[in-house]
Target: Related to Isotrichodermin C-15 hydroxylase
Amino acid sequence: MTQIPFSLAWTSGAGHKKIYDLHQIYGDIVRVAPNELSFGYPEAWEDVMGHRKRGQAENGKDPDFWRGNDIYTLVGSDRERHSRLRKILSHGFSAQAMMEQQPVFQRYVNTMMKKLREVSSGGQSVEMTQWLNWATFDMAGDLIFGESFDCLEKAQYHPWVKLLYKHIEGFAVSTALIRYPFADTIIKLMTPKHVAQDIKAHSDFTKAQVGKRMAYENPRPDFMESMIRAYEKGVNHAELLANAHNLITGGSETTATTLAGTIYLLGTHRPILTKLYVEIKERFQSEEDIDLLSVQKLEYMFAVLHEGLRVYPAVPAAIPRKTSEAGMIGNHYVPANTIVSIWPWPMFHNPKFFKDAESFVPERWLGDPKYEDDKRVAVQPFSVGPRNCIGKNLAYAEMRLILAKLIWNFDIDIDPRSEEWLEKNTAFLLWEKPDLWVRLTPRSDL
Model:
């Protein structure tokens, strides 16, 4: 068996569908590369990613996948570093911190609504993926660097943000090459000079912004405050820089992607959009009542977002782990140093686990007896175990806030140019999204 078929699938933009096909043919566990197993059954989340039993070693992050500065981040670090960083960062993601951060979120979401009213006046369609990206990156920039990227105000991408989207496919190629001999040399030779310059400029900007944030004299209720307080005692400079970058990208791109997918699904399922609008109107007397706390009471909204994440998970591909010792994963013996992975999209779409797996049905999360046999535990878009997403609760609150205010203000129709938007997405580790054109009609009953 050779690595080449897996590499080709990974870089094709349709690797998630290839892995889906393999699981449909060969079952719950598939050898997808010479030393890599894909686990495609619901309990695999706990078996592979979950807390280990006493005496069992963690299935750690695959060190080949996480290289360079990634080893200093919460997501790419070893067990000891991860435990230390998570303890420090957790303060910025607490319920108390979220309430203290509320004015920041409200300011940017309100700006987004104001700008959308301006650009949609006259009935012209709006390209929503960029507006969602601009809003989420502006919020993240404020809460990490201490200042916005000003994407919303300028209605354009900041160069730092633009670069992230520019090289999604290139990142897929480099991660595909890491399994081969002399990978570092090959990647270096293949990287064009202008890309290397882009990466350096990106890094230099991060260093400058973190330096400015560290110089603030007064404490600030953001994600960086606890790390800065721990600087040189529990956090070194490399960790500070790497996690600032990681928190912005991880907390922005995936949120914007989930909202884009959900907006498309709502726009193509009018009865669900209407039902969600009714819930929002019955819950709130005015737009000012919509905040990070109150949106958590929107049960149908949660079902809509969770179903959106099932149909269109923000991270469709696997983030691999590696066994540190031989042992059992579920009922199967797996040798030491084996790469083990779970691909979200193939599992979330498996008809063995979900009735009407290709349909968008929020009611499956609300006790509809038609879907009582669904394996709901299969859907873990934020992962599980000690390395699950630290920002899960905040992400749900932020998405509910943006979506609630959007639907409060506008009716949503999909422009004919984007009727097949979902099918035109290509998947690497993240989605490479086409433009999502929508018509936003101001609500007449406001």
